[in-house]
Amino acid sequence: MVDPWAGHGLGSTGYRRVLAALACSGVATFAQLYSLQGLLPIMSRDLAITAAQASRTISVATMGLAVAVLPWSFVADRVGRVRIMGLAVILATVFGLLVPAAPSFEALLVLRALEGAALGGIPALAIAYLTEEISPRHAGAAAGAYVAGTTLGGLFGRLLAGPVADLAGWRMGTLAVSVCAAAAAAGFLLLAPRPRGFVPVEGGGFGAVLARLLPQLRNKQLLALYAQAFLLMGAFVSVYNYLGFRLEAPPYLLPASAVALLFLAYLAGTVSSRAVAGLAARFGRRSMLLASTGVMVAGLAVTLAGPLPIILAGLVLFTAGFFGAHSIASGWTGALATTGRAQASSLYNLSYYAGSSVVGWAAGFVFQAVGWHAMAAVLAFLALLAAVAAVALLPSGRPSVPAPRR
């Protein structure tokens, strides 16, 4: 009798390869998805569009991703996580390479939507793949490491695009990112170990789809985590969408290459997303989720100041808080889902990127009409709603160590 797969243990070759492969997928995904974010002011001037219109290049990509995560998860349930993630990253890279050649703003939006839909196959499956292949005892820490890797991917794309765009325009900036994403995609395909914890799901009719979805939608704790994803990610992407417009205007007058350096604040998220995993084991997931949300709001309040160094300090605090909260919520989703783990993870990602799309776009109208302070107040209110949902619906106390898979 074959023993059930217990997962790769901490420090093993398989463990390291899973995390390295997911790090490559994170670079390929998040470098492309947000490469235009630091270039929105340049694009706005070049294409003669408003800040809210320019932000649609981010929103259509994240909405495409949100719409696609569930279909990707159902296909992956039948043919495997690694195969579908590989297909997704290849398609996304192809669309990403076409984006700089878009002949019009409308064509650009279509290509970005397709790119986002292709990218949906990565975050939709990454946590499910990780949970199946990593020992349950170390899955939480591995999830934190994966989220930390995604912050580096997003940071890399923005830092590369900004200086290239200053020299050669936003189209060349995005092309440079897409070429590097192609290399990261190849890294994922080479590094991902053969899956050993995956069990194919048989049957694929509409009834079977509902049977895997409904338990997640009836679980109030999972719904609370989906609310965290929608509200907190909406607030987060709004800050990064529009802070560049604020800092390129008087009295700051920062160039695009300097605005790109704002994304160095992501390094705070790289640290916090890993740090909260250990703190959650001591103080409980809900406590750390609420603490991280509080740090977000505090950082947002600091950005209301006038001096640039204080604004940057607030951005660092805000970013650390967000990625701490996201690391807790995304890892908790996999732990709470006893069946349909890929669907639970996909619903989290759907909520996450729907928040990015809807709130990230709508906040632009507030920013254009009444300015940064009013927009920050709205975003703080959304974070408060997330905290209320967490207190009302999520369990307190320290998490127990999951039992081995059977």
From TrEMBL:
UniProt cross-references to InterPro entries, sorted A to Z: MFS, MFS_dom, MFS_trans_sf
Keywords: Cell membrane, Membrane, Transmembrane, Transmembrane helix, Transport
One Gene Ontology cellular component annotation held by this UniProt entry: plasma membrane
Transmembrane segments: 18-36, 57-76, 82-102, 109-131, 143-161, 173-192, 222-243, 249-268, 288-305, 311-338, 350-370, 376-396
PROSITE patterns documented for this protein: MFS
Membrane topology of this protein: Multi-pass membrane protein
Localization per record: Cell membrane
GO molecular-function term, one example from the UniProt record: transmembrane transporter activity
Start and end residues of each Major facilitator superfamily (MFS) profile domain: 18-398
Family of this protein: Belongs to the major facilitator superfamily.
Annotated PANTHER family: BLL2771 PROTEIN, INNER MEMBRANE TRANSPORT PROTEIN YNFM
Name of the protein: MFS transporter
Source organism of the structure: Arthrobacter livingstonensis
